[in-house]
Amino acid sequence: xRPLTPAGRAEVLTTARALAARGVSVAEIWHSGLARARExxxxxxxxxxxxxxxxxxxxLAPEDDPDVVAAELNLAAAPLMLVGHLPQLARLAxxxxxxxxLAGIAFAPATAVGLERRPDGWTIDLVVPPRA
Length: 132
Description:
By secondary structure, the chain is of the alpha/beta class.
């Protein structure tokens, strides 16, 4: 239940601004409900202003099964942003794009990894570290 540190908040804001500068637009931001994920989602939401808001959802806690969220993402009609925890988000990305596609990506706090669903499957669209 620890909150983000001042440095953590600054890193998330840097990432949020970098995403906005790249034209990233999402309809909704989902987060795990845990303190740091909620704060992170709120900071991102304040910059990206998702039309459907920022909401707590299940399946994004550190030990949750990534296949549950992957199934929801495969049904989503609008762009979503997920804010969760490691190692769960790295496992989710691997379930969608495959481990090989993630080689060289550092899943570190405040890093955004954008995935795009195409007719032939998921692909990595962008990677934005907190010092972008």
